[in-house]
Design a protein that fits this description.
The chain has one domain. About 40% of the residues lie in helices and about 20% in strands. It contains two helices and seven strands. The strands form two sheets. Strands 1-4-5-7-6 form a five-stranded antiparallel beta sheet, with helices on one face. The longest helix has about 55 residues.
């Protein structure tokens, strides 16, 4: 058994142990904040996709058609310019939205309208409890998406 005199730490050792404890605590707290920030961004994305969904539904109700998908690929990037028009610009032009939402990170929102249906998609890392949760293949990447139905 060790006695107090045999286990005596030097000042430097105590400072080093204290420093390690502080660094570990800061690292642990920073990791929690990073995870919370990512979940917050994903929640914002889902809210903005829901706003886009409502605007597209209102557009369909008043015009009896869905907004046109622009570009050559299956999906158009919301707000991106395709020739002289922007994807889903008619929603802001006609007053269904004040402005088109912009993703809080570098991954944009996508819109697709074809024979199979009407979809909105976003890259979301965390599975939040949402209705109509499904994934879509957007340019080779599985993204969270919703199918728009009346």
């Amino acid at each position: 058994m060790l006695t107090y005199t045999q286990f005596k730490l030097t000042k430097t050792s105590r400072l080093l142990v204290g420093f390690c404890i502080v660094v570990f605590g800061v690292w642990f707290i920073a990791a929690q904040f990073t995870q919370a920030a990512k979940q917050g961004k994903d929640a914002v994305k889902q809210i903005e996709i829901r706003e886009l969904e409502k605007a597209v539904i209102l557009y369909n109700i008043s015009r009896n058609e869905y907004p046109e998908k622009l570009g050559d690929s299956e999906w158009c990037e919301v707000g991106a310019r395709y020739g002289d028009r922007r994807c889903l610009y008619e929603l802001t032009r006609d007053g269904y939205l004040g402005t088109l939402p912009v993703s809080p990170d570098e991954s944009p929102y996508y819109y697709r309208h074809d024979q199979t249906g009407v979809y909105l998609a976003a890259s979301i890392e965390y599975a939040l409890n949402t209705s109509k949760q499904q994934t879509c293949d957007v340019k080779g990447i599985d993204m969270w998406c919703i199918e728009i139905r009346l």
